[in-house]
Specification:
heterodimer, A: 373 residues, alpha/beta, D-Maltodextrin-Binding Protein, domain 2, twelve-stranded mixed beta sheet, two-stranded antiparallel sheet, 17% strand, disordered N terminus, B: 391 residues, mainly alpha
Chain lengths: 373, 391
């Protein structure tokens, strides 16, 4: 059709117009995809490598895959790498010695410790789409100095589990853990929280910040029970404790809701009770590694964990609560044990939320003294 | 034609040949031992150097001030942690009645003297050497030897302290000593039977006896948990036989000091049969024949000839059980419960557990290492001396 004139100088025929539109559309499509691909490529190459997650046993490829299934859907072929932590102090030790996780999950009582350690940095809440569905009290508990250092994940209680066919408590109180009638049939958690519990039992004003004298009294209360051989076992491995409980070696134990679910599933007659002084409540907090080279992946991982699907799976399978308020377990018993219908179940006066202990080292030393009694 | 006389090369002096040979031997020795020495340096001496630095505050776990506040660590050279550990007094209680208080260093000097007496007794006095040795051994063992029976172990004397870690150390030494003594008492008859009772296929029998040692240690501990539990094999048998009410099992069997001692000696007996067997095998049978010819009874021959000659093997067997048992961690963690908590667990707690105080953990580790090294060095001389048969 052309008679030598330039396209810009003559009117286009319908055919030429359609051809040009097709070429322009295709170019635009390709250019758009290319730019998107370029951006993604830039991101990927900027966030190369596997996401490094420092988490507790049972939350990686050893049973917790459902919790980050949506992350894997978003980043297929980019499986996170997990390293286990056995305690918050264990995690700090690992990070101090060079481990640089992108994501770590201590519990709420250690948010301040981790925030001040220099190993973590705040999250960008805007990058976590499920944040709006998380329990606001729990979200607030993850803040330190106005920044969102912790994103709440799982939660539950420290309370007492006992066998109803063997134990007849005089009262539902923390003192059941050193009831002389059941000497040799009781197990304590191998952690300094036993001193907090002793503080509540003794009526200390603030068991989380006991003075030297108060801590000494708490220590003596526990040490005297140890000398009388009342607690048979200090458990640090939950599975070993469950094995001993199921075998009938212990009847009363300082436990978490998952332990109640596990023993119930074995057909034991058990009851999970909150002592009159109040149970201790805890919240798992995802924290982001300082200067992580994979911030987008880290946010996506936590966002996956925070979804309703992950929360429901956690409650059904691990018998812990989940911060997503839309998550609900199938079991009515679990609903009751976790008090999931009460949004303030974790707060005073219903429970004493785990918190920062300023003189934690004193507590740790007192705990060692109890064990050596 | 006259033959040209050949001039022989001057012979190399004998001294030079000997020197060359010695130099060659020395070079070969260094070449062969260098890898082992390098291994020792890298995986033992260098780490020990850093642990010592931690124990005196020259190194710390915390990487910044905020973390240091969390762990409460020392910021520079200081012997404070050592003083805290060793300053509490110790108390020696005898037969549950009389007790003696003393500083820890006094006890340390006293025990060091007893060890020297036990090792060098015959050299110190020709006339009373045997008595010195025997007395020193008994005094060393008295505070630590127990008869495990129930939760409260029966004992003649007991060492205690106001210091938590010292008290824990004494408890660990008690459990290690009891395990070692009972392991030797159980292993000796088996080794004696293998050495003197079996004529043919001796080493096959030895292999059968030590076969359990070839299986996984952890599996064996878990097996004991099943056997000793309140509803385990042993208690179930008692219930079936009507000897015990199901609501009243024998509870000290599991999660107690008894359990730790039982599992330790069970784990070590197959292993220590070997050194005792080797020592007994090396006893010259002609000495026993001569003793019999001169009218000695079997018991006298055992006491005067067999036991003294086998003493190095018996002491080695004791040390093979005692030394690793003091710092034991896995066994008390799995079956010790609260009652069987040991020194090794306290050290672990300082490094990777709730206590998280590497400096304190280093103090405990170096202390344990010094005790073990002192024992190993002093008794190694005894082993070289060989005891000696009496006539």
């Amino acid at each position: 059709m052309s008679n030598g004139q330039d396209l810009s100088e003559r009117r286009l025929s319908r055919e030429e117009l359609l051809k040009l539109a097709a070429v322009a559309g295709g170019a635009g499509l390709l250019a758009g995809r290319a730019s998107v691909a370029g951006a993604a490529l830039e991101r990927l190459s900027a966030e190369s490598g596997q996401l490094q997650v420092l988490d507790w046993a049972g939350y990686g490829y050893d049973g917790g895959q459902a919790m980050f299934a949506q992350y894997l859907k978003k980043y297929p072929g980019e499986k996170p790498k997990f390293t286990n932590m056995t305690s918050e102090t264990n995690a700090l030790a690992k990070m101090s010695q060079g481990l640089k996780p992108d994501v770590v999950r201590p519990y709420v009582g250690y948010v301040r410790d981790f925030a001040e350690s220099g190993f973590v940095q705040p999250w960008n809440p805007k990058l976590i789409s499920n944040l709006k569905y998380l329990n606001p009290n729990m979200v607030k508990a993850g803040q330190y100095k106005g920044k969102q250092y912790g994103i709440p994940a799982d939660w539950g209680f420290d309370a007492i589990l006992y066998r109803t066919d063997k134990v007849k408590p005089k009262e539902i109180a923390w003192s059941l853990l050193w009831d002389e009638r059941y000497a040799g049939k009781i197990s304590w958690w191998d952690d300094l929280y036993m001193l907090v519990v002793a503080g509540y039992a003794l009526g200390v004003k603030n068991p989380w910040q006991q003075t030297t004298g108060e801590l000494k009294r708490s220590q003596q209360l526990l040490a005297s029970a140890v000398k009388k051989h009342i607690p048979r076992l200090f458990w640090s491995d939950e599975l070993a404790m469950q094995t001993a409980f199921a075998a009938g070696d212990i009847w009363i134990v300082y436990a978490w809701p998952a332990d109640w679910a596990a023993m119930k599933s074995k057909g034991l007659k058990v009851r999970y009770v909150h002592p009159k002084e109040g149970a201790i409540s805890w919240i798992g907090m995802f924290m982001q590694g300082k200067d992580t080279p994979r911030p987008e992946h880290a946010h996506a991982y936590v966002d996956a964990w925070s979804s309703k699907q992950s929360g429901t799976w956690l409650e059904n399978n691990y018998a812990y609560g989940h911060a997503n308020t839309r998550s609900r377990p199938e079991s009515q018993d679990l609903l009751r044990v976790l008090k999931l219908t009460n949004p303030n179940a974790l707060k005073e006066p219903n429970a004493h939320i785990d918190r920062y202990i300023p003189n934690r080292q004193e507590y740790a030393e007192a705990g060692e003294a109890v064990k050596a009694a | 034609m006259a033959q040209r006389a050949t001039v022989a090369a001057p012979p190399i002096p004998i001294e030079e040949r000997a020197w060359a040979r010695r130099a060659q031997d020395r070079l070969a020795t260094y070449a062969l031992t260098t890898p082992a020495l390098a291994l020792l340096l890298v995986f033992f001496l260098v780490p020990i150097y850093f642990v010592v630095r931690y124990s005196i505050g020259l190194e710390r776990f915390a990487q910044n001030e905020a973390a240091a506040e969390l762990t409460g660590e020392l910021a520079g050279f200081s012997t404070e942690l050592w003083r805290e550990f060793l300053s509490p007094g110790v108390e020696l209680e005898v037969l549950g009645t009389a007790s003696v208080h003393m500083p820890a260093w006094v006890l340390g000097v006293f025990f060091a003297a007893l060890v020297i007496g036990a090792v060098f007794g015959p050299q110190l006095s020709e006339r009373y050497g045997g008595w010195i040795r025997t007395g020193a051994f008994l005094l060393l063992l008295a505070p630590f030897l127990t008869i495990p029976a129930g939760n409260n172990l029966l004992r003649v004397a007991e060492l205690s302290s106001e210091g938590d870690f010292l008290r824990l150390f004494f408890r660990s030494v008690t459990m290690a000593t009891t395990s070692a003594i009972w392991a030797v008492i159980i292993a000796f008859p088996i080794a004696y039977f293998l050495a003197f009772g079996i004529k043919k296929s001796k080493y096959i029998w030895l292999l059968i006896v030590i076969a359990p040692f070839l299986t996984s240690y952890l599996l064996r501990i878990f097996a004991w948990k099943i056997i000793l539990g309140d509803q385990g094999l042993f208690n179930s048998a008692l219930f079936e036989l009507g000897l015990r009410d199901p609501d009243n099992p024998v509870s000290f069997l599991i999660y107690s000091q008894f359990t730790v001692i039982l599992v330790l000696l069970y784990a070590w007996v197959p292993f220590i049969i070997l050194p005792i067997f080797i020592a007994l095998e090396s006893v010259d049978r002609r000495l026993l024949e001569a003793a019999t010819d001169m009218g000695a009874s079997r018991l006298q021959a055992m006491r005067k000839i067999t036991l003294p000659l086998a003493a190095p093997g018996i002491v080695a067997a004791f040390l093979f059980v005692f030394i690793p048992s003091i710092g034991e961690y896995v066994t008390p963690s799995l079956v010790g419960g609260n009652n069987g908590y040991m020194f090794g667990q306290a050290i672990a707690s300082q490094f990777v557990g709730g206590a998280l105080n590497w400096q304190t953990g280093s103090v405990l580790s170096i202390f344990l290492l010094c005790v073990v090294l002192f024992l190993a060095l002093s008794t190694s001389r005894f082993l070289r001396a060989g005891g000696g048969a009496t006539t």
